[in-house]
Amino acid sequence: MTLSKLSLRNARRQTGDYLVYFVTVIITAALLYACNGLIFSSEVQKLSSMLRTLPLVIVLASIVVVCIIGWLVQYTTGFMFTKRSREFGTYILIGLENRQVARLFFLENLIVGTFAFALGILLGNLVFQTLRAILLALFGIPYTFAFSFSCKATALTLAYFVLIYLLAQLRSRRRIRSMKIYDLIYYDRLNENAVLTKSGRRKKIFSASLVFGAAGTLLLLKRSLPAGILGSACIIVFLYGFFLSFSSGVPAWFDRHTARKYQGQNPLLFRTLSAKLNTMGIVMATIALLFTAVLISQGTGLIFGAIFESRRSAEACYDIFISTNSPDQDFSDYIAYIESSIPVAAAHSYSIYQGPDAHITDYLDANTDYHPCYSYDTWMKFSDYAALRSMLGYPAVTMTSGEYLIHCVPYQKSVVAACAQPIAIDGAMLRPGSIHTENLNQKLWNTNGTDFILILPDEAVLSRPVSHNLYAAMTKEPVSAGQHDTLCRIRDNQNLRRAGYATLYTAPQVREEYASWTAMTILPLYYLALVLTMTAATILTIQQLSETDRYRRQFLLLKKLGMDQREMNRALRLQFTIYYAMPAIPPLFVSIPFLLNLCSATDPGVTEGFYRPLNIVCITLTLFCMIYAVYIVMAYRSLKRNVLP
């Protein structure tokens, strides 16, 4: 049999024995191709000028992915080399040279990598269509399927794969060419020694790791960059210290508590746990670190989504919205252009007034997470308020004599209702009336109040000084990019000619802006999170499935000793639970407090409704568990089918 035929046969066997690894590499190739397709897609580049930086963001994310997958390929290649070292030694023993065996192993992995790349490109076209549909939906453009194949994206993906596989295979090639027959034959019997052997040192490092973990978590809760960097370093020390000391300390603890050691199925669990942890301390710590990054990336993506959605819905309330804080600035230049170039369904110019005090503002500032923009409560005429409600299509409201209305954002309704007091106007008292919470653009500076505004009778407001002037319009057709640019030039000319500053929003521009931000932040975060999860789960699964022969012998012996099928099923499930839970539990204690604190650091009202902090944590854990569970189920079904007698 020639080396080529032997390589092809071994490659076919390799894809069967390491199917999980093969599938993960295919999916990674598909993701790389799909993201590279976005880089070279002229359709995506035309969506928004802000997406000019999207290729750079994707390339940076892909470089991180290449490093991660490179580590996976290198780890798996080294693992396969260890498991097949006796086979390689036998080849040399029967007459092959070291360089021929090295070339044989290289050709095997080259064949596997080529097939994974080819299948990944085919699957990547479907993934690209999915990403394309998501991007078009963000920009409000209907999706129509159009098959496309990008040679540039294929070439860039091929360059990534050559880099990944070349570095991994060259290292294995050097190792095979330098090893002797004896070393190859007995290489698979070498075990990683416990890093920490002394009991006293284990205890100290285990305790110190817990301290570092607590300190790192607290530092991550601080809202500062230096504290975050220091906290991240503490978390890394915690994970590696925890698993290195835990992997050496658990067997020692069982040795000191022999009653627990030989109780129930503990001998079996003790032996399995000792064997795994004694050789996988560093790997477990690395995987736990990857899982921590996954949870934080997914949760941060959801929080960014909440921020972008909150601001988009507020700023895109009107099709055109202009405000200025300068009393001598008017909207005549804007109105002249709008009336001549933009079909308007309804428009209204009005003013926001300064109240005589800041009773509600001060109460919100003292009792809620509120960021005041003014040193006074803002007021609005009832006629202006009625015109805005009509323009937005909200139900008409009435205001009876002797009362005033309040309009606020939903999350402040109960607080505003509790602190609202009667207002004295020219000797008459106006009592608080109904409170309304529809979207009226109340989130940013120089809008319809910050979080709230008081609606008073027109005659009661006229004597108050103006806070800022506003113009709002609803158009019959979406404002085009050219029309928006013209309005911006008018704004810039006014800012240069007169004191003050004008704010300008158009609904399409706002949607485009936040759709671009979503594409450039959330997409890379989930891209990285998916690859990290698959990589870590693949390594755990490969390690578990490699023990099939040992598990089979173990359970055959247990059956001869009298263990029934139900007990063996329970023992296997328990071993699986411990093995897969160990690297996943520590990240929970780090990521969950971090995400909850990050939610509290956003603007008030952002993490409300669907984006409540508890929802964000639950969605993050659900997404992670869904992917992780696929690998667990695959490994369990395979091991159960091949192990249990």
What does this structure look like?
The chain is an alpha+beta fold. It contains 22 helices and 9 strands. It has helices at residues 3-17, 19-39, 42-45, 54-93, 98-138, 151-178, 181-185, 199-221, 225-256, 258-261, 266-315, 332-341, 359-367, 382-392, 413-419, 458-461, 481-497, 507-545, 548-560, 565-581, 585-600, 613-643, and strands spanning 320-324, 344-354, 378-381, 403-408, 423-425, 428-436, 452-456, 466-475, 502-506. A 9-stranded mixed sheet has the order 5-6-4-7-3-2-8-1-9. Helix 2 (19-39) packs antiparallel against helix 18, helix 8 (199-221) runs parallel beside helix 21 (585-600) and helix 11 (266-315) packs antiparallel against helix 18. The longest helix has 50 residues, at 266-315. 39% of the residues are buried. The mean pLDDT is 82.
Distance between the termini: 36 Å
Query: What is the general shape?
Result: elongated
Instruction: Output the radius of gyration.
Output: 32 Å
Oligomer: single chain
The biggest sheet amounts to: 9 strands, mixed
Q: How much of the sequence is in beta strands?
A: 5-15%
Q: Uncertain segments of ≥5 residues (pLDDT<50)?
A: none
The spatial strand order of the largest sheet comes to 5-6-4-7-3-2-8-1-9
What would the average pLDDT be, to the nearest integer? 82
Structure summary, number of beta strands: 9
How many helices does DSSP assign?
22
- Which structural category fits the helices and strands? alpha+beta
Q: How helical, in percent, are the residues?
A: 55-70%
